[in-house]
Specification:
Number of helices: 3
Helix content: 25-40%
Number of domains: 2
Distance between the termini: 113 Å
Strand content: 25-35%
Radius of gyration: 30 Å
Shape: elongated
Number of strands: 8
Order of helices and strands: HEEEEEHEEEH
Structural class: alpha+beta
């Protein structure tokens, strides 16, 4: 008795259709994932815009910065607390004994230790000591930033925390440690208010 013949192998065209079908399925998954991600991004942007509009409608001052220590304390990178705000330019006013002239930046929001090293060395560790023993120097900051595509200006006073690290023969090294808001929405003579806070 002869054995039954084995089933014929699938044709090449049928195998090609399976491969094309799998590729179409994967492509459909990718498109669906991208659509979902795009919808999520759009929804998040709408939520941020709505929150910013509500804060402005309520009369709240929305602009506050934080400082991120970089380069072993030689720089504070400044960034808005609210991600929907973009810093355009800034003017910094330090106490006259620390730095007599103003410093201006455009686009690169930062405070460099080099700006104040000489003045803080001359002032010594007794000047600017906070209640907790931290060394602090006030700085008046005028910031132009974008919020919802509109240019807005803010004038505030921040406290820059720093450390004087002794070095033999080279003089103390100034290391910046952080930034905290002291007064928001300051009107009038910014330098005078910075000097009063330093004294």
């Amino acid at each position: 008795m002869s054995e039954p013949a084995p089933p014929p192998p699938p044709s090449a065209s049928r195998q090609a259709w399976v491969t094309i079908g799998e590729a179409v399925g994967v492509l459909a998954l990718v498109v669906a994932g991208l659509s979902l991600w795009d919808a999520h991004q759009e929804r998040a942007k709408e939520d941020r815009d709505r929150a910013a509009a509500e804060r402005r409608a309520a009369g709240e001052a929305v602009f506050v910065m934080r400082g991120v220590v970089e380069a072993d304390g030689q720089r504070l990178r400044l960034e808005p607390v609210h991600a929907d705000e973009v810093i355009q330019s800034q003017t910094f006013v330090f106490p006259a004994k620390v730095r007599g002239d103003v410093v201006r930046t455009t686009g690169d929001a930062r405070i460099d230790a080099d700006w104040v090293t000489d003045g803080l060395r001359k002032s010594g560790p007794s000047a600017g000591r906070g209640d907790g023993g931290d060394l602090l120097v006030p700085v008046g900051v005028t910031t132009t930033y974008l919020a919802d595509g509109q240019a807005v200006s803010d004038q505030s006073i921040y406290l820059v925390g720093y450390r004087l690290r002794p070095r033999w023969l080279l003089g103390a090294k100034v290391e910046l440690e952080g930034l905290s808001l002291a007064r928001r929405g300051v009107a009038g003579d910014l330098r005078g208010k910075v000097e009063a806070m330093w004294r």
